[in-house]
Amino acid sequence: MTRNLTRGSTGLRRHSVHVTTTNVQPATERLDLAQQTLTPCPPVRDLIGADVEAAYAVQRAGIAKRVAAGATVVGRKVGLTSPAVQAQIGVDQPDFGVLLDDMTDPDAASVSTHGLLQPKIEAEVAFVLGADLADGDLDDARVRAAVAQVVPALEIVDSRIAGWDITFADTVADNGSSARYVLGADSKTLDEVEPVDVEMSMTLQRRARLHRQRGRLPRRPAQRAGPAGAHRSRLRRAAPGRAGHPLRRPRSDGARHRR
To answer: pTM for this one?
Structure first.
């Protein structure tokens, strides 16, 4: 048995589950059925527990099915990069997800909610790679050199888990709760802008709903694109960074707004 933390309406609560790696297929099928029927499903932690490797196996199986149906991998998501947010929800590592070509919408376009279950929106900074980040040491200099553009972005997150009743393993299995994203048309290089100095505002019907002040992002892109040790290895296994691919990371304070 293992203990894991769940984020609920009144804070974090503990629960115990039996950890197994034999239930990857049932967990994948549960999430797939939720998407097909547009009906949120129970958490998959009753099947995979808190086993992170099993959660990534579920994610890979889900992505493989979508690729087999015609989708193309075009980038990746890195979430929970802020130590403050990690501490808030009781984890000690970032989570990784995969971006597909059928998840993107053009800048300034209306985004359809068709196919979404319980969406929210996040303001983000995206890094478009000009060189591969797949092998070798992902040190600061290499990651910075690989970033061709820095662009504003919006992510529509959408958990297939009913009521967003998620643990870390649930989120990973559900591809980081990533549904759609929009890259802004305005781009800068890292010679023109430091991510730590970026200020970001998000408005709804011309009214400000979110403002992120300076200093909320780590200064070095490698702190987001190349997390240390085992996390870097997991990043490569999840989806190696390829030239031309966007690498999205969320606002470091974790703010989300319901649509």
So the answer is: 0.77
